[in-house]
Amino acid sequence: MEPGFWLNLHNRDENPCFESHDPSMMYDPVSGMYYSYSTDAALISPYRQGIPVRRSRDLIHFEFVGYALSEQAVIQGRDNGPGHKPTGGFWAPYVEWAGGEYRMYYSATRAFGSSESRIWLAVAEHPEGPFENRGVVMDTWNTPDTEPNAIDAHIADTPDGRKYLIYGSFFGGIFLKELDPSTGMPVNPDPHYQGRRIARKPEDSFIDGPEGAAVLYHPREEYYYLFLSYGWLGDDYDIRVGRSREITGPYLDYQDHCLDGGGWGIKLAGSYRFRAENPRAAGDVPGWQFAGFRGPGHGVPFRDPVSGEYFFVHHIRDGAQVFCKSEWDRDSYRMHYMVVRRMFFLEGWPVFSPQPYAGEKGDPCLLDGYPEGEEQGAAVKWEWLRLNHRDNRQARGECDSLPKDLPRERALVFNCYDFENSREGVCLTGITAEGEVIWGKRLEKEF
Length: 447
What we know:
Layout: E1 26-27, E2 34-37, E3 52-56, E4 62-67, H1 71-78, E5 90-98, E6 101-109, E7 117-124, E8 132-139, E9 154-157, E10 163-167, E11 174-179, E12 196-199, E13 211-218, E14 223-229, E15 238-244, E16 266-270, E17 272-273, E18 293-303, E19 310-318, E20 336-346, E21 349-352, E22 365-366, E23 374-375, E24 378-379, E25 382-387, E26 395-396, E27 398-400, E28 411-418, E29 423-431, E30 437-442
């Protein structure tokens, strides 16, 4: 049992989850393979525009297989018209198998930080491409920053067969609009039609966002879950969630605040650091020392149709100080990786494993039923941290009794691979009475 990436190994061929930014995930029912697509990004590897593709047989061990878009699609997608520089990279692709074809939604923006963007739909007969452009599904060129940004596409389906595009980033918020299931193109053929807003940051928000949104319907819970990210790629980047009975909203947080201007949602992941005796890392950069993880974000929920299990796939940054230009540089933790986490549902809310997926099997049990008493003469001890929804600094682990505001019936315990100590272990995820997430690991030794 081991996770799919190493820290401090900056070679995409040997460490394929390296350089994956804004990753998505799909299961291909034809080949039985899992495919992940990501933003055009290269830190060490030669840069190429065209949507990087990775594949796996087990959601753990991936291989880099190339680029998805055809040469013609790249030329067309980067063309911003006379008098404008061509787009130098495509962002945040999402791919699905639908209507007997593979459909990729990807973004082309005028420049980094611009709200003038387009979301293209490209189609292919094979998950590795070549994908050819079918058309523009959303266009926000020549619009003010107070309106939505056509970027960060995700596709959500309803039980009755409707299909929606979820999109948006900062600026005007997160929107959705209906698609034709037979073609994947919008029901309203006007590419400038915005659809309906479902999320925007509160007026008094101290963090940027939202962006990187995705919607998942859970049939047992009978809720739609809106996942989104707040922050700016470094220390303060995070993953949050709200829920609604209808795909069009309103999406509410744990305190019933509406995500459309009233709240951020429950924080499911943020920058964090557990104590590390033997982190899973290589030796590529001299002077590297483990300093936790920074900026988990921009991910997608994923239900594995083979196992029926739920996962969340996102990127994360190596928090080592050797990659930090200065203490105050928010975007300085450059080395990023794709992480797959197990996702469970607890009292109607999703929660993530504190550890990357390493092939663990079996259902979690409630802490209330976990044997936490005397064992071999010593009480079971935990290292835990709190994902405070109003504090986006890196959360640090505490070796102490679990917090008193975490009800034992509101925490799940399960087997994991302890990434920070390179061994098998036991971890915990739960929600406090006030709706804050607690992550924990069973201590194997005193620190």
